[in-house]
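Researcher: I'd like a candidate sequence for this fold, 489 residues long. If you have to choose between options at a position, lean toward the conservative one.
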């Protein structure tokens, strides 16, 4: 196989990058072209994403491709979930999109359940985990608040679909990103008309549903002129970043769980059908779309958001992650534990103060300084992973032999070892660039370079080195888990 090149745009909630990759002889190589911040804009009492800045960064990456004469076969874009852009009848973007951490949804989920539709009914339709920022509740809040962009919208496009539209002029609704909205029925794999009507919308407000691997269109004349590229196709990859990341899990077979570790930690299993029952409702698990008709049965866990927010506050902490974390490892373990998913940690003014206040009100040692707080975060995340992993084992109709950790968090050796210790299962860490690799592999499938998900995973396994972590200190972690359950009940 000769070199085949692909261009991936990978956008997270705090940063983004453009990447070029080539696949040859059963292996791939990737090169990061650009990296940039994805900044929340706070104005007028709201938080917005700058969709134009993100488009500008994509164009910048494509210009580099043209200047270096890299013969890319296609372009793919993945982003975080749930957020969307309002498009006017003249195809103009009506306003920068509200960010999922905007406070306009606070209290609106509960109001929706009391005034519009029963909570259990919503879950029975969607199988989606309840989070106040899901698209359903954003739309409800915008409607109640008389949002002018929503009122004037002819179409609503999820973030990756909007960016693809800006490149191609074509509007679609990619399945995996739509599945995060709490508007989609995973059985029919279509947006649910009753849920749409409950927030005053119709199906016509969204583009045609497409599955990962669909060609959306080629670059517009405008984009070709700006970048110097030709008729390059834009592929609807798994537009939700976690869907792309899970596609990149280098598993040997189906007997695995995954942990996509980044700003959010997404822990789950891959299933052939959605799992929607009383227990999944009770534990608040979600069913999101995967590639090749699979379902990502998982739970969202507030991940390195806690750590990164604290790092911005610490003025005396080492700037390097290894040095800071090494200091945290000298601290006595388990003296302060938190539930990472407590609402206190959604978007506090001070994350340090939020963690300290949580420990104070639960009668624990109040952590002081960056080392104690970092250790509190890592201990607590590992124990939350254990709790979620134990639930996954209840739902899986297969034995889970291994936990794959992918994403930026796979580089955190301390937390990886803690996770192995806590869950009691072998951990394989890598690839770090899981989301971008999944994006690239989906483009490769669309172009006929690979046939299916298992061929994709074989190429990934052949191309990277994974790090292995074996469980240790079982009794210590068993005791810590009992204390965690007591503190967080």
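Model: Candidate sequence:
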């Amino acid at each position: 196989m000769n070199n085949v090149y692909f261009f991936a745009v990978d956008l997270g909630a705090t940063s983004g990058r453009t990447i070029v990759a080539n696949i040859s002889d059963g292996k791939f190589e990737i090169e990061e072209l650009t990296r940039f911040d994805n900044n929340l804009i706070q104005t007028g009492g709201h938080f917005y994403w700058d969709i134009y800045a993100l488009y500008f960064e994509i164009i910048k990456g494509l210009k580099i491709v043209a200047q270096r004469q890299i013969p890319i076969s296609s372009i793919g874009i993945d982003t975080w979930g749930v957020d969307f852009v309002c498009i006017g009848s003249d195809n103009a973007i009506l306003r920068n999109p509200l960010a999922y951490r905007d406070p306009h949804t606070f209290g609106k989920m509960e109001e929706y359940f009391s005034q519009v539709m029963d909570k259990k009914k919503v879950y029975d339709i969607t199988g989606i985990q309840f989070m106040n920022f899901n698209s359903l509740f954003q739309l409800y809040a915008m409607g109640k608040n008389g949002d002018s962009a929503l009122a004037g919208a002819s179409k609503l496009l999820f973030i990756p679909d909007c960016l693809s539209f800006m490149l191609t002029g074509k509007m679609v609704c990619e399945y995996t990103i739509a599945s995060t909205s709490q508007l989609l029925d995973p059985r029919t794999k279509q947006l649910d008309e009753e849920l749409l009507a409950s927030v005053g919308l119709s199906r016509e407000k969204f583009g045609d549903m497409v599955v990962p691997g669909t060609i959306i269109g080629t670059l517009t004349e405008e984009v070709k002129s700006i970048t110097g590229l030709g008729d390059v196709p834009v592929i609807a990859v798994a537009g939700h970043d976690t869907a792309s990341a899970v596609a990149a899990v280098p598993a040997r077979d189906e007997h695995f769980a995954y942990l996509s570790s980044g700003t959010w930690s997404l822990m789950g299993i891959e299933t052939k059908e959605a799992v929607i029952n009383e227990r999944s409702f009770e534990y608040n698990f979600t069913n999101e779309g995967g590639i090749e008709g699979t379902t990502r049965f998982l739970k969202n866990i507030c991940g390195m958001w806690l750590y990164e927010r604290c790092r911005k506050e610490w003025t005396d902490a080492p700037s390097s992650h290894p040095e800071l974390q090494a200091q945290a490892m000298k601290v006595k373990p388990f003296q302060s534990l938190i539930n990472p998913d407590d609402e206190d940690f959604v978007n506090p003014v001070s994350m340090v103060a939020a963690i300290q206040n949580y420990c104070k009100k639960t009668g624990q040692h109040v952590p002081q300084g960056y080392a104690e707080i970092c250790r509190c975060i890592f201990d607590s995340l590992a124990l939350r992973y254990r709790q979620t992993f134990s639930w996954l084992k209840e739902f899986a109709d297969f034995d889970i032999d291994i936990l794959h950790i992918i994403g930026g968090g796979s580089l955190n050796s301390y937390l990886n070892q803690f996770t192995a210790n806590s869950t009691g299962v072998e951990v394989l860490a890598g690839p770090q660039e899981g989301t971008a690799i999944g994006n690239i592999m989906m483009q490769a499938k669309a172009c006929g370079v690979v046939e299916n998900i298992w061929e994709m995973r074989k190429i990934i396994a052949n191309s990277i080195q994974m790090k292995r972590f074996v469980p240790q200190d079982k009794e210590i972690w068993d005791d810590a888990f009992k204390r965690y359950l007591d503190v967080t009940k």
